[in-house]
Every structure is written in structure tokens, then in C-alpha cells.
Amino acid sequence: MPVQAQDTAPRTVSASRVNTSEPLRTLPNRPGLARTGIPAVVPNKLHSFADKGQRPEVTDLADPVIDTGAASRSSSATGTVVQSFAGIPQSQSPFIFPPDTNGDVGPNHYVQWINGTVQFYDKQGSTLLGPVSGNFFWQGLGGLCDARNDGDPIILYDEMADRWVAMQFMLSQLLNGFGGYALCFAVSTTPDPTGAYHQYEFPFSYFPDYPKVGVWSDAYYATANIFFDGDFRQEAMAFEREAMLQGLPADAVVFTIPSATRGSFLPADADGSAPPAGTPGLFPGRPDGTALEIFALDVNWTTPSASTFSLLDAPTVASHNPYSGTVPQPSPGAGLEVLGDRLMHRAQYRNFGDRQTLVLNHTVDVQPGFSDRAGIRWYELRNGAGNSGSGWGLYQQGTYAPDDGLYRWMGSVAMNGAGDIAVGYSVSGPSLFPAIRFAAQTADQSGTGVLNVPETEIQTGGGVQTGTFGGRSRWGDYSMMSVDPSDDQTFWYTTEYMPFTSTNEYSTRIAELAVDSGISPNFDLTAVNTSPGGSPIIVAAGGSVTFDYSVSNNTGSAASGDLWYTASLGGSTVAQMLVQSGMVAGGATVSQSFVQPVPAGAPAGSYTYTLSMGQFPSTAVDTETFDLQITTSERPDGAASWAVVDAEAWGDAEQVGPALSSSLPGTFALGAAYPNPFTQAAILPVVLPDAAEVRVVVFDVLGREVAVLAEGRLEAGKHRLVFDATGLPSGAYVARLTTEAGLSQTQRLTLLR
């Protein structure tokens, strides 16, 4: 559709305070309490567009894409709560309601932040730091961000930079409509979220309510609702990410969203591979509560006034009624509030190379009329490859509302690297205490609009909320589903529930989730040795053998698999090593090669060499076996090393098939390390379409630099960098590739001793 011109000029806001903190774990403790001094409700003036005259009333209608869960009842797919542990309770933040629960997962940490309080965990649920006050991020900065702690927090893991981003608003005079206001940002200086942060205070002359943030390659994009400063509006903002990652002075470019009713927009938040170079920040939203629009903010940091903000697309979605009622609880519970007028945090984006995706959700009325009931409407939007693609269109949609009389709302949705989609939400009803559940769609069901993974309970409720504030029984106002960057498959979800009946003494939960299609992996491995050939393969110790191989996924669902070898002599295993791990798209074939060295110290003899495909090290779906004759042994006492070399990452290999899913971005790539896990050395592939100044560094889990693999100009093409871990302890490491343009990618490595 035609692009709509922007109706406002951009404004530039410069950070009024900039500082770099000491490591958080070394700072004086600030108890995790809000700083208002009196019980307070974080304001939210949008409760529904109908309340504000922002949305025309819609005639009651039946939902045409309702999913009653019938398909999941006969599905072989399963959802699993891998682990679940207690998050921050209301007792640690007693003065602010609702909790605005959110959290994100990194390679080695989980950080949860609710109104007033933040806590840092390892990925087994052990507390590393906290609970501490939310303004802990801004100790030493001075000003509003340091002095106050007002809420609407967002914590995100910036996967492209291997950094953490924290944000919340601050108000000098709470809710009086005048005085100073600020959006406060903190960006970690290392991958460790308990370490130091670059701190920023961006001043505003009006109250930026309900701010949301998304990670992008050229900016941290954000939205906020403005309702004290004249007529209601929503603003879209770009914050100078490259400068903020370095702790330099930074600016923000601000637009008023040029939509008829200007509400319910979110910034897209990228997971996985970076967006194609030049892709503007994306802002999907429901301007009138029923339609869907996507705007783009194309920021120009050299000349901010040249930045543009315009309508990209308006995909047509199935008709629906926004939910404007409350959610019942068992007696004596109050009716819980539903924010049915808006998309719910977050708008997750992915770049699969051949396609780009956005997944979104909001709450709708699935039973309009006098007997209304809340359900979760979700969407997957798609665009083509490149920085413009063919335009954003609706790929699939569904309204999840099992026919059980229960109400589902306050959802969050995300897609993993395999294409599975998980939706977490609150659920309640006249006979059910508010609880936490999730449902999902496995990648083999993509396009159906059906969540084929049966609803799975994360946390049962133990009571009801009886308190009301300003005539409303607040709940939420948002939750968060995220994807573990370590495997790009596991989901993490956090939200609130009631452990017992009380006015408002909520608790929160953090859960790691997994989904399984129930389809057994069916890999077909074909391998031939090419140099030297023959049977047996005859090679002298100190030589090598080159193998060509193909792996086909014979199912319709993307599947994760491992390729490994085992070398045995006289029935005893002398070497076994993982060659490659990765995702193979449904119906696709991966073809490539690797070189197998024969150690100079290997004894002469007749070996059995077996390649296996499946789940390393014990579950082989298919194998290929070769006879290997080692004719001489040059150094019988020499150190043996069977580590393979020149094995390309599967992300670099061509996947041929109907479900092609390349993860190679359009600009540059730090490919999957191999082998990984590794015992001594790992190869990291780097792909550059153009010559560039790059730096490739490896950090340990504490953010300490342990190796520099490349620093300087690399020519266009494929490069293979060696990480020699001699002398380093076993454990997790992170490799990071950065370019002169400030773009970054990371890769997690596991060293085994």
C-alpha cells in the first residue's frame, strides 16, 4: 500500500546526564522498595480506547479464527516446564501496583524486574544479586534517575551486542501533570548483568507513560503514551545505541506517531540474527483497537532532522472485538482489569534470511454480548528478505480460547530459532484462582493459526486479589516471553499470580519452557570420503581424510541434530568428538565437508570410523561406517589430537528443500563454532560480504576478555578463526564479532576438560 507521509517533524532530545557506574555487585545495597513513600498505583490512562472515546464501538461479532484447543487434545506435541522458580514477591516492592512483571534471559543469567525491584539470577534460579531497588542501575548518576524509582521497568538482553539494557521512567512530581520527567537507560559494559553500566538520563517536559523498548541494530527504539500534555498521543523514539554501548554522550530522536487515534504501538525487539542492514525500526500497533498498522522509523544519526517516520503496511486481520470487561475470580475476588485496547509486550522480530517475522498478541472478546469472555489473539506477520522485502503481510493468526469458560489475558508471545511459537498468559474464572499457563505451536504446524501444543500449567493460583485502586483491580500491566540465546529454542516466561487471598499480595514466577512436536527425528545421513578414497581408507599417521556428507531431515518439522564421529581400534574407542550441531529445516538437506586429521602418534592398525547423526553422544538416528587403515606411526609417544578442521557451520551451508530456513544475515555473520562443545580448540567461521575492520574477542562468563581472535581489516569472503583454549578452565565462553559500523554478533562456546 502507499506509504503515508509523517505528520510531525522529529525532535532531538540529548541525554542530560551520562556516567559509567561501578559494578552493581560492589555497590551499597538499596533494598528493593519503591521510593514514593505511600502506596501508589502506577498510572495507566489508556484503560480502554472506548473509555477515552478513541475507538468507535464495534458491533458484537463472532471471532472467525477462534482456536478452542481441540487440535491440541489429539496432538502428539507436548509442552514442558523445564524448571520454575520464585520471582520477586509483592513484599519486596510494597508500594507500587501492578507489578509490570518482565524479565529476560542471557547466555548465563536471568534478570527479573518488577515495579520498584530488580533481581539477578543464574539460570538455575540461584540469586546472584538482589532484590534491590530498581534505581540501583543509576547509582552515582545523580538527578531523577538516581533519586527516584517510579516504575514501568523494562529489562532486555541485547543479543547482537551481548549486553543488557535497562529502562524505566522517573517523575519529579508524581502525577501532578507538571515538573520534570525522564526516561532512564542503563547499558551494561560487559555480558555480566551484575557488572558496570553506562547510565543515561533523557529529560522530558511531560510524562512518558507505559514506555516500551526494543533492541535493533542501529538504535534502541521505544514508545510511550503521553496524556498529561494536551490531547492523548503516542510517541515513537530512537535512542543512540552505538554511543550508549560505549558510554558516550547520546541523543534520542522523537516523533509523534501519525495515526488517527495514536495508540497501542510497540517497538519491534529483535532476537537471533540482526535485521538486514538498513532496515528501519518497526512499530506495529492497533491504532483504533481493531486494525493493525506497521510504521517505520528510519533514523539518521548524522542529521537527525533528516530522520523519517512513516506508515509501511496495514495488514488485514480477522475481525474481532477488543475486550473491555474485567476477568472474574472466585469469591471474594474483584474483577481483574484487562488492557484489551493494545498489543501486549513484546513485539518480537526475527530475521531468518529468506524471511522476516513479527509475532504479536492482544486480548479479545471471544464471547461478545452480556456473557463476554477473554481470549488471546495472536499473529505472525512475514516480510521477505532484505531491508525492505516485499511488504509486511499476515501469515497466520488465531484466537486461543478453549471452550472451558475460563478467561485468558495479559499474554506475551515469542518465536524461537526453529520456528516454534509459545504464548504465555494469565488464566482465571469464577471457579479458578488466577494462574499462569502457556500454549504453543510447533514449527511443523506453522501457518495453521492453531496452538497444537496443549495448554500447560506453569503455576497454580492459591487465592484471589480483593483490592481495588481507583475503582479498578489492576493486574499486569504486562508480562514477558523470551527465548534463550544459548540454544535459540528454550522459552522463558515471567508474570504474576496470587499465592493466597489478599488485597494485593501477589507473587511472581519465572519458568523455563520447552516444546516438542512429538515427531521423532528422521535424519538420513549420507557420507563419502573423497581424499584418499577406497575401502579401506589407507592413510599414514600424521595425514588426514576429507569427508563429504549430506544430512536430510525427512520430517516436515525443523529438527535439531548433532553429527559426530567415533574412531575405534580393536573394539575400544580411541576418539569421539562432536563435529557439528544445528537446526535442519523440515524437508531440507545440508551438504558440506570436513577434514579429519590422523594424529602423528596414532598407532598403526585397522580402525573402525563411524559417523553418527542424532543426539550426541548416545542416540544415533543414522550412521555411516568406514574402515580406516593407518599404515605408520611417526611418534608413538606423541600427543594425539583427532579434532576435525575445515568443517563449515551448518548456518553457512546450503539447505535445499521446501522449508528452507537460512540464518545467514545479509551483512556479516559469526557462524556456529565447531566443534562445540570442544576440548582444546574451536573454529569460528566469519563471513564478510565486503572488506571491513572487525574485532573478534572471546570473553568468559564474568565478562573478562580471554582471547582476541582478530583485530583489523579482513577481506570479503569466508574466514576461519581458531580459539585455542589451552590453559583456560572448562565452562562457558562468549565470542563476539563487531564491525567498524558498530554491528555485533555473539556465539556461545562450551569448553570441556
CATH-level-2 architecture of the largest domain: 7 Propeller
Shape: globular
Global structural class? mainly beta
Q: Quickly count the domains.
A: 3
Strand order of the largest sheet: 4-28-27-26-25-19
Instruction: Kindly report how far apart the N and C termini lie.
Output: 57 Å
| Radius of gyration using CA atoms only | 27 Å
User: Which fold name corresponds to the CATH topology of the largest domain?
Assistant: Methylamine Dehydrogenase, Chain H
Count of alpha and pi helical runs? 3
Multimeric organization? single chain
Helix residue percentage: under 10%
Sheet with most strands: 6 strands, mixed
Unreliable residue runs: 34-39, 47-57, 174-178, 636-640, 658-667
Strand content: over 45%
Report the strand count: 51
How does this model look, in words?
- Helices cover 2% and strands 47% of the residues.
- It starts with 10 loop residues before the first strand and ends with a strand.
- The longest helix has 6 residues, at 241-246.
- β11 (154-158) and β12 (163-171) form a beta hairpin.
- By secondary structure, the chain is an all-beta fold.
- Mean pLDDT is 86; it is low at 34-39, 47-57, 174-178, 636-640 and 658-667.
- The chain folds into 3 domains: 11-516, 7 Propeller (Methylamine Dehydrogenase, Chain H); 519-663, Immunoglobulin-like, CATH 2.60.40; 666-753, Sandwich (Immunoglobulin-like), CATH 2.60.40.
